[in-house]
Amino acid sequence: MKIISWNVNGIRASVGKGLLDIINDFDADIFCIQETKAQDAQVDEALSELKGYTIYRNSAVQKGYSGTAILTKVEPLSVLPDISVEEHDTEGRVLTLEYPGFYLTNVYVPNSGSELKRLDYRQTWDLAFSDYLNELRKKKPVVVTGDFNVAHEAIDLARPKENYNKTSGYTQVEIDGMDLILSKGFVDSFRKLNPDEVKYTFWSTRFNARARNTGWRIDYFLVSEDLFPKVLDSTIHNDVMGSDHCPIGLELDI
Predict the structure, then answer these.
(1) Is 44 a known active-site residue?
(2) Is 82 assigned a catalytic role?
């Protein structure tokens, strides 16, 4: 099974940049999308020419903000939007599909914002989300993918010293949040398979960051420990353009 995940930074804009061709070229069994920035009907309309996939989506109450979607060729057993915590369930950030062998959770984790204004909220989110994943994992293995808005280790961003505890995405609070999720029995699939590889998934649109590869690895496939032996590959497709993020991939022998 081949799964692709991508923060497209606006699904309607990304369709104009070739998103449908990119989806078709990947020919994945499942394609997870974060930051749709669209309501459900707008997501459906943007993807209306796409063939072969069933579309599930979870949109924010606020129009043009956040949002997740999953395109799948494999019919799920059930569809679970949100995490059943009222405080966190208005922004369309989580969408889970249940398959026979595992749960697949697509997530767009809140950004702590400029001047870290939303860092306290981010901390409560991380706690609630880790509890949600832990409850899923008690039932069957879990794959969780998406934009986690955190570089977990120094190797995961180009300028760790300059950004530590100063910039959203590399504070100790956010690092601790990722540690908490991993402590629930999850493996960072790319880092496990590529312990020393420097590769990024996000680049600021300022300062020519992508051309200079001054980036961050903040998009992940986390896999529960009992499923990890079935992981064949975990990839970063940093040659694919169309967003300030690039797609990431996971292949499972399942």
Answers:
(1) no
(2) no
